[in-house]
Amino acid sequence: MPRERISNSWMMHIVMLLSFGILDAGCSGSQPTDNESASDTTTTSTTSDFSPKQSVLKLASTTSTRDSGLLDVLLPEFEKAHNCRVDLIAVGTGAALKLGEAGDVDAVLVHARSAEHKFMDGGHGIRHEPIMHNSFIIAGPAADPAQAKGRDAGAALQKIVAGKHRFVSRGDDSGTHKRELLLWQKIEGLTKWKDYIESGQGMGPTLIIADEMKAYVLTDDGTWMKQRDKFQLVQLVKGADDLRNPYAVLVVNPEKAPAINADLANKFSDFLISKRVQKLIKNYEINGQRLFHPDRLKQETPE
Length: 303
What we know:
By secondary structure, the protein is an alpha/beta fold. The chain contains 11 helices and 13 strands.
């Protein structure tokens, strides 16, 4: 049985990595395996034949866009179009925004609207562009001891807490964790119980933990559809308005640090909202199912 808190907070990971220089521009690393923490800072260069003459975009992104596989499609396209390299730092939304506030990255790709607006209102960003959305879902054991299936999110959580059933939370200030806390607030707040487990991990590892524990879990459906064949958990709750999951890109204020590449960050924002890339997002599927819905295509119809 995992401890109530399985790992240290993301901030400890960030501090340690910064101390050792792992987050310096120009460094590269490998993607974590399924058993590694996806909320640990992962810096990945997607171009192997980088030239010193190329520009570098330091991008802090939520783990769900990486775990869904979407960035594996989009980032090479951007690098090719602009003869640049993208250094991807995959962390939770809260950590990504803090890297932006500190001026350690050029752009952030996140999914927590209230935190995004706070970032912009604080003068940390100069541009905020909605890009796409998908949904959160609640997954759980097929036996569904809480009888959550078919209920709205609030009612499902009420059944889970009433029965003191196992529930695994990200617990990492990510966009998914922020949404979970918002859902609890709507049903009179969260009172933790023995089997409420905070993983402190990214979405992929949190799903693994929930699956091993036969627990309920809130996840974005992009990561879920990409990885669900690995799990015995099943989808139980989806489709409610309060489970809509919007993503946006924010350009960091270049006044934060002299090294911020605002020009390339703006080009990246233009790239993501362009018609061609919005179509790439629309057409990105796993097993015939679309993972994300573009927000900047006029022909895109509501779900």
